[in-house]
Amino acid sequence: MRRPAIICGGRDFIGSHEAEAWLVLMLLRHAADVVIHGDQEGADRWGARVAEMRLQLPAKKFPPEYERFGREEAPKVRNYQMAAEAAAHGRVPVCLAMPGGSGTGHMCGQAGRFGIPVLKWRPGVKA
């Protein structure tokens, strides 16, 4: 059984030492053993790199399938798939959200629908 952590956030998110420390602490605190992300620039790829470099956690990517679902629906379908994948495991997953916009909000909403706790990092927030 795996314990996944979804990492999400804005495409324009730029990581900081503070954000990295929070992310590593949350991954450890929730005993994550795999990272799920949407494979976009910004928070997704940054978080996956941090998890791999600092904790040697593998990542499962869910890039949006624009050709299949179209420009507007692809990210929504992808967010649903990420939440469903995380929830399919026997142990409680977690969604770790960095600052972002409506796409990040949608991902957090999908996680909530699957009963996945959502933890949000904001600058100045200590773990």
Descriptive report:
The chain is α/β, with parallel strands linked by helices and 127 residues long. Helix content is 45%, strand content 15%. The protein has one domain: Rossmann fold. It has five helices and five strands.
Strand portion: 5-15%
Name the shape in a single word.
Answer: globular
- Describe the oligomeric state of these chains in a short phrase: single chain
**What is the residue-mean pLDDT, rounded to a whole number?**
95
What attributes does this structure have?
127 residues; alpha/beta; Rossmann fold; five-stranded parallel β-sheet; 5 helices; 5 strands
Give the structure's gist in a few sentences:
This protein has 127 residues and is of the alpha/beta class.
Write the layout of secondary structure elements.
Blueprint: E1 4-8, H1 17-29, E2 34-37, H2 43-55, E3 59-61, H3 66-69, H4 73-87, E4 94-97, H5 102-113, E5 118-120
Parallel strand pairs: 1-2, 1-4, 2-3, 4-5
Helix pairs in contact: 1-2, 4-5
